[in-house]
Amino acid sequence: MDAAFLAGAGLGALDGIVRANPPWAGAWRQRLALAAAAARMAGRREDEASLRDAWYLRRPDQDPGPAGRMLGAWRRLARSSGIFELVGEAAAAFGLPADEGVLEMVTIQGLANSDRPALVAAAEAATLVMAGRPAFEILALFVADAVLAQRLRWPTPVPLLAGQILHPALKTGGNGRRPRPGDSDWLRSSNLAFARAAASACDLAAELARRAEKLQALAPKLRAKGAGAVIAAILNDDALTAASCAGPMSDRALRRLFDRLVTLGAVRELSGRDTFRLYGL
Fold this sequence. Notes:
Number of helices: 12
CATH topology of the largest domain: Fic-like fold
Distance between the termini: 35 Å
Order of helices and strands: HHHHHHHHHHHHEE
Strand content: under 5%
CATH class of the largest domain: Mainly Alpha
């Protein structure tokens, strides 16, 4: 089946979720940001669990380190409407050298605001960013997601391409070479990657919708003062620590609330630890 057709169908389904903006959309976007940051193409080997620890188990004023900074860039993309202002920050977070030709973004913004088909504009933007700069591949995928969102008129980007571009099904040729921006068949490869990414994002949305429904159904039964704010925070992020939910509840009360939600199957403990625990949908 045609790669552009597959990508268009997948993005059409995804478009409905983006525009509906369900209560759990924040958690959904941030979980996709985590998947993008865990992609093994940026010279780092941290998995999703390590990235979560780097981000959530730090003091508010503490540098999260290289891995955490990378995750932070994707998290900001998944929350921002002023997407092109983030590209310079993302380049720094990815450990890339300053490059005025990329950071100026004039040509890329032109693609985003053009009448080019969304998938074509995204692929061309990625090629432009990476041209002659192999180290800029991760930034190229970041920009592709931003351009796609702009062309589709989404209020906020959805991290997609980086989480799927390394999938074995996308390798081509006798030596199994993976696709890269600028390849002769990059448009087709990026279309297939966007198709896979959209399907995966829709599956995640369905899963989180079920979990969120269970959590919201429990809300009226939670008598603890401040429980509503905790539930809202859970729906808006990938993970939380009990200590991060500042408010009228004590640390002990927060831990009891989270433990109860886990026992009731409304929230998961994500770290697998007895201490420094992380909770999320």
